């Protein structure tokens, strides 16, 4: 990431969520959630539908403000760090945040422009290669399959090399080979000491990819058994007998 | 400041590119505005003679309604595939995003204005271009005022279910001063005995309106976009 003219570069190697709650009107989407992410680890965010996973990701992405509690990026909050923090966040939401009328290359160019990337063409070339879309780079993505768009959206999110990578259901629509590529990509992110949080229902795919998992249910963090077994077994155990932390 | 306008221009260019592929807003607004002029020409032209002052009202009515159509779509488009969140997450001044969207709407409305003015001049034998600088000033300041209020409300309502109903309900009461000033200024310029002083007064009034609402929009856009 190239720092924007006039902005102070900001970096962090830990993210701390302290007693965060988030309300939508009278409905509580998150309740007293506390957790931490460290650089160089991939954390899985698990939970049934409506558990609060997307809300938590939006909060960490600075798109939502906590109703109570505090999120700290290193030693600063989102309000303190402002745009410099947003430059360090990559968020792949379930909706892919792409413009279907634009080509793959134009989507990446627009993103590169927003992030003020100086070496944009090299990064865009690499991103298209990683997404295996080099030969379709100049086609409007309207004609792409869900999996192709998903790969492009992931590369758009990683284009500015964010420190914090938040992925909501990144395996959706991917075929086996693309899933393997994404897994490799996640390992690369870990090796580059990025903080990765991925929300998923695809437990078998991410088993062995995530270093640890956090489980949410009805907005609360649940204890997930660390004593062994597959991620799916631990998840089921957590759902049936888990305790709130 | 350069960075601010670079981002605003980037957003405008992106909107142009998207619009040039879909042509959805351009066709809708132009067709609607032209239909308006055509229908009014049957009502207000009798025996080849238009009713005095009708052309001014028709220009501004056609612009207001076609502008509202464009405003309704401009942020709705960003909601598809949640692109708005992608924009808000980027490390740019959010006011620059607003200015970028506003420029896009203004450019679109200027294209529609050219078509409307052409047809009004044709059907109503209107002499709108007797005083070109004054007429252009009226149209451009009026468009900026209408679009800045409209873009702010469109952004504010982007995430609401009933935005299609609420946008005109909020937009027209606030933009009535611009529309009245626009019509009155155009009448002053196009009448048989043009009144330049009166036209200058209405232009100045619109400029004041523009300054107030542009400032308000830039100031409130960021908090409005934070959920």
Describe this structure in words.
The complex is a heterodimer of chains A (245) and B (227). Chain A is an alpha/beta fold. Chain A has a domain at 12-88 and 164-171 and 196-245: 3-Layer(aba) Sandwich (Rossmann fold), CATH 3.40.50.300. Chain A has 9 helices and 10 strands. Chain A starts with 13 loop residues before the first strand and ends with a helix. Chain B is mainly alpha-helical and 227 residues long. Chain B has one domain (2-225). Chain B has 9 helices and 2 strands. Chain B has a two-stranded antiparallel sheet. The radius of gyration of chain B is 18 Å and the shape is globular. The mean pLDDT of chain B is 91. Chain A binds chain B through residues 4-7, 58, 61-65, 83-87, 89, 91, 93-102, 106, 110-111, 113-116, 140, 156, and chain B through 2-3, 6-7, 10, 14, 17-18, 21-22, 80-83, 85-93, 226-227.
Order of helices and strands of chain B: HHEEHHHHHHH
The helicity of chain A comes to: 25-40%
Largest sheet of chain A: 6 strands, mixed
Domain module count of chain B: 1
Known CATH architecture of the domain at 12-88 and 164-171 and 196-245 in chain A:
3-Layer(aba) Sandwich
Strand segment count of chain A: 10
């Amino acid at each position: 990431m190239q720092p924007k003219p006039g902005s102070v570069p900001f970096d962090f190697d830990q993210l701390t969520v302290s007693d965060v709650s988030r309300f939508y009107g009278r409905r509580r989407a998150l309740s007293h959630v506390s957790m931490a992410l460290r650089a160089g680890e991939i954390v899985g965010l698990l939970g049934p539908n409506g558990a609060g996973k997307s809300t938590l990701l939006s909060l960490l992405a600075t798109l939502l403000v906590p109703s109570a509690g505090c999120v700290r990026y290193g030693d600063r909050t989102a309000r303190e760090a402002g745009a410099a923090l947003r430059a360090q966040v990559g968020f792949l939401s379930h909706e892919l945040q792409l413009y279907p009328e634009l080509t793959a290359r134009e989507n990446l160019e627009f993103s590169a422009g927003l992030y003020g990337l100086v070496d944009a063409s090299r990064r865009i070339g690499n991103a298209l290669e990683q997404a295996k879309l080099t030969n379709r780079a100049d086609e409007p993505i309207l004609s792409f399959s869900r999996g192709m768009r998903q790969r492009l959206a992931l590369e758009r999110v990683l284009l500015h090399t964010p420190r914090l990578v938040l992925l909501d259901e990144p395996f959706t629509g991917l075929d086996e080979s693309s899933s393997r590529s994404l897994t490799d990509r996640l390992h690369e992110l870990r090796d580059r000491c990025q903080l990765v949080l991925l929300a998923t229902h695809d437990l078998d795919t991410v088993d062995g990819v995530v270093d640890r998992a956090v489980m949410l249910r009805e907005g609360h963090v649940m204890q997930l058994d660390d004593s062994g077994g597959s991620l799916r077994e631990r998840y089921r155990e957590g759902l049936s007998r888990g305790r709130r932390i | 400041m350069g960075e601010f306008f670079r981002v605003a221009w980037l957003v405008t260019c992106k909107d142009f590119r998207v619009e040039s592929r879909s042509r959805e807003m351009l066709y809708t607004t132009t067709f609607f505005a032209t239909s308006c002029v055509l229908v009014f020409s049957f009502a207000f032209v009798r025996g080849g003679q238009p009713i005095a002052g009708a052309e001014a009202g028709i220009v501004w009515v056609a612009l207001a309604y076609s502008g509202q159509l464009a405003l309704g779509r401009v942020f709705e488009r960003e909601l598809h595939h949640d692109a708005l969140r992608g924009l808000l997450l980027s490390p740019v001044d959010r006011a620059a995003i607003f200015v970028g969207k506003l420029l896009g709407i203004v450019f679109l409305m200027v294209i529609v204005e050219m078509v409307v003015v052409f047809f009004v001049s044709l059907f109503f034998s209107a002499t709108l271009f007797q005083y070109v600088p004054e007429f252009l000033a009226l149209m451009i300041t009026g468009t900026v005022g209408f679009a800045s209020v409209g873009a702010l409300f469109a952004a504010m309502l982007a995430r609401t279910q009933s935005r299609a109903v609420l946008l005109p309900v909020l937009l027209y009461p606030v933009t009535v001063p611009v529309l009245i000033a626009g019509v009155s200024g155009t009448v002053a310029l196009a009448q048989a005995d043009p009144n330049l002083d009166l036209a200058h007064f209405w232009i100045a009034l619109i400029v004041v309106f523009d300054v107030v609402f542009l400032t308000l929009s830039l100031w409130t856009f960021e908090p409005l976009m934070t959920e």
